[in-house]
Amino acid sequence: MTYERVVMVLQEIGMVPQEKAQTVLDEYVDYAHDELTPYNVACALETFDVAVSVHAEDIDYLEEGYEDLLEAAAALTRGAVTVTSVRLHEGEFVDGSRYDVLEFERNGQLVSIPAEHLSDDYYDPAAACNAIARSAASASNARTTASTTTQWSSPLLSRQGHCRRTLA
Q: Model pTM greater than 0.90?
């Protein structure tokens, strides 16, 4: 799959306006015809502002990392969702894991997600993906098309601990 093919698919399903598609193609003109790896296809979704990524890299502060992640996901809904008051309530360590609760308000409604952290430097990928899913616009909002993929269930992604939540 190429950037051009990604554009065609996203436009066919109504997720990317022509102006955004052209902007991305102009930015990646030197690579627009190159075959993309499955991982790069997933990254392209972020470039088109239809997905966010939960990376497996070191982060400085968990609570701020989750806040940034959820704000990025909410931004993809084009104002249909607001995420505020992101808090991480730290639990106790049990057998090398800390069992926390990630809380945030989605359009004023409290959402709580259990999270297991092996370190203060890394997301809990499942909790992060669940939080992104819970931050998506309601099913009644026609602009929301949801597709959550993880390293275990998608040929689109490399095995680097990524999750994509696609919203339009």
A: no
